[in-house]
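Onboarding guide, step 5: your first structure request.
Type a short instruction followed by the sequence, for example:

Predict the 3D structure of this protein.
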Amino acid sequence: MARLFIIVLLLLAATPAIAAESAAVVSERATVTLISDTDVAADGKPFRVGLRIRLAPGWHTYWVNPGDAGVAPEVSFTLPPDARASGIAWPAPERLPEGPLMTYGYEHEVVLPVTITPGAAPLVVRAHANWLVCSKICVPEEGNFSLNFPAGVPSPSPQSSIFAATEARTPRPSPFAAIIAADGILSIQGLPSDSVAEAWFLPVSAGVIEPSAPQALGRSAAGITLRLKPGQQFNPQRKLDGVLVLRDKTGQSSYFSISAVPGAVSVAAPGIPLPKVLGLAFLGGLILNLMPCVFPVLAMKAVALLRLHGSSRAAIRREAAFYVLGVLVAFTCLGVLIVTARAGGAGLGWGFQFQSPAFVTLMVWLLFAVGLNLSGVFQVGGRLAGLGQQLTTRGEDAGSFFTGLLAVVVATPCTAPFMGAALAAALSGPAFAAFAVFLAMGLGLAAPYALVAVAPQLARWAPRPGRWMDLLKQALAFPMYGAVIWLVWVLSQQAGPAGVLACGIGLLLIGFAGWALGVSQTAHPRRRRIGQIAALAAVAGALALLPASFTGADEPQSQAREEAGIEPYSLARLSELRAEGRPVFVNMTAAWCITCLVNERVALAPAIVRRAFADHSIAYLKGDWTRQDPEITAFLGEHGRNGVPLYLFYPARAQEPVILPQILTQQIVLDEIANAGS
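The system replies with structure tokens like these:
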């Protein structure tokens, strides 16, 4: 009798289940079955089955795109020839941080639905599935499942409510237009931004964005934007498919399937009207006149202002107008370069040209040549010698124009207050708004001279010409030489000893060119021509040395050096520290950024600040943007900036960082630490 009972049990186990749930595959980590929303099948009428995974506490499995790690479950079906199975209708996953990584998956329980379209009933559905479950370790599991559907009139099974719960998390087609920009900004248009408390995007394909990167939420009248960090598989020419998760102020979540088309994101700076942005840009440009980067050009502007004494009103206006024109043309060119490059996917930001060792070398030689001119080694045109003469020649118009150009070029290593929000607006809005912001910034920088153009009588307050003006002009050469020394130091951080050697030889040749030009300017025309040829040959020799500026540039010394108590920034390290619950201070800087260097010396290096960091166990991460670094560029963009400095403080229990001012003091830093502690 017992033997017969065992045989019956074996026969039952081998027979497909006539029920809405199969026999379970059970481990200490998960219980997995195949369920159905009906008990019977009708000819040609679709119904749903689903792989039901019930997970033990602390364990999880993965979505179709597992994120930084993991493997998605797989289900294959064996059906009669006249039946077919759809793909999995994936419910929206949760974001599951795993140390510095971010994965997409499910905890507790998930059902992966598949639609079965039968041919003729009855029907047997057999399936084989593989799934990965993870906690501290990951364990691959698999199982075979079978359900038997007799012919009949379909009706809901006891498992129908489980499918209904899954439907609530299944993304539905989005009614909103979606655009993905080349720099990773995702725009959702037509969505009332006031109704959104949180939002994030989950791509269906791996590698198109960095899963662990923050997705900063922006709002505007057009809808919302999310700043995504493009991954290695991101293609700005292709659609971006995925799931948009929206959470309202009550905590209710909605899930939408979106397919973002490539294009320009035409939203202004989140929450800031364009007129206010233009005002911030103007103030930032005006304050830029007081930043140390512009001191060398202030020397040239001082000489030019003194030169205006006694000139006609028309000449004064002409001088000022050409300087203003030079500033505006330079800002327009910067705007075109940055906006065009970012539209093509390049991460250029404010001061990007100083990330090139070749450009820094050219600036060293140019400022050295300007210093030699101010020192009297040579003159550019005879008119410059007569400081009291009227400014009516084309040569002096060009001199004013190029002084304006140079002012902008050397101002870019500095970032003034108000510029951060204005630059973020310039690069997140449409092209016309971006250029308006750059022009407003240029007007701010040129405002002192523009005032002279509007009210030329102000120039009459300048002191009368005299020998003292020649002495002042020569003295003002020394800020130029100081700028040369600073830029050579910047070059040493970028290109190492070989780059500095090439730059030094170039300085020698530029010095020879200035001397040859100077001694020949008062000579016979034939000797003057010889001097000019010698000067040109020396300059050509210096330019031939430019390729040497890149030698050793692959490993900038500024990035290789480590400072006591400071770690190099990386997104992985930041995520790890935040996962540990430690407070973190992030300093985004560059060797060519004078504002950054002054802030570090004044506000971050003092012993009282370092002691406060140590007392509160604050980790100090320093990102070096001296050379182009895509990870730092993306980080700046995620926080609405496209230039340095940027200072962020992550308190231990806060979700979002505090953004500190661009001009720091000890007290600002200490107060922020004290506020976090309280």
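Each response can be followed by summary notes, for example: The first strand starts at residue 25 and ends at 26.
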